[in-house]
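Fold sample X.
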Amino acid sequence: VQLQASGGGSVQAGASLRLSCAAASEQTFSTYTMAWFRQAPGKERAFVAAVTRNSNGGKTFYTDSIKGRFTMSRDNAKNTVVLQMNSLQSEDTAVYFCAAGRPILSNVRNPAGHYYWGEGTQVTVSS
């Protein structure tokens, strides 16, 4: 699965950004759980959000720090996922990666549960 993320940029605190991730020519997109992770300088890659595959009911998972501000959605017909990020804070500054895999639900937040990764897109939030 080839993943291409886009939509990053530099914004002021309080602004919004919309990240997209497209899976090229993927006929089995709906069978993958899709996730976003982020990596800030000097830190490990961290879970942000996920939407599970159809067989797991398309459930959404969020890390606590972004609940109420970020929303993740998927469009299986278009092989895309979107991460709508509102009320951005300086702590959200990181490189954001989209990922695809078939982890069990308890492993959705673990980077090791995802097989495929797109190149990251930089999000910079200045206060």
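Fold sample Y, listed below.
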Amino acid sequence: QVQLVESGGGLVQAGGSLRLSCAASGRTFSDSPLAWFRQAPGKEREFVGVIRRSGAGTYYADSVKGRFTISRDNVKNTVYLQMNSLKPEDTAVYYCAAPNSGTYQYSFSTGWYYYWGQGTQVTVSS
């Protein structure tokens, strides 16, 4: 059974940092892009960033560019989201996502991804 499990969320003051982790099990995702999305109350789930299968390419939403960094450890089958200079508008549930097969492609769209974690809450106070 494939599972993605996020951790590392919490409450932080504006300007602070958090590091989220997403550990995958049930299959290796070294041949897949891995993405982060977030969903704030009353809003649609939105793209945060994605890292390509090789780790050589990362892409971010404009709202987080320069503040967030995605990395991956294919040995640990884990993807990370380092979040710096956090703002109250970053408050949301953060999800990691993966496609259902290995691919060189990637997407910024929720509908393209098959596997999702349960989410981890990030709250940034002003």
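Sample Y note: The longest strand covers residues 18-25.
Also: The two ends are 40 Å apart (CA to CA).
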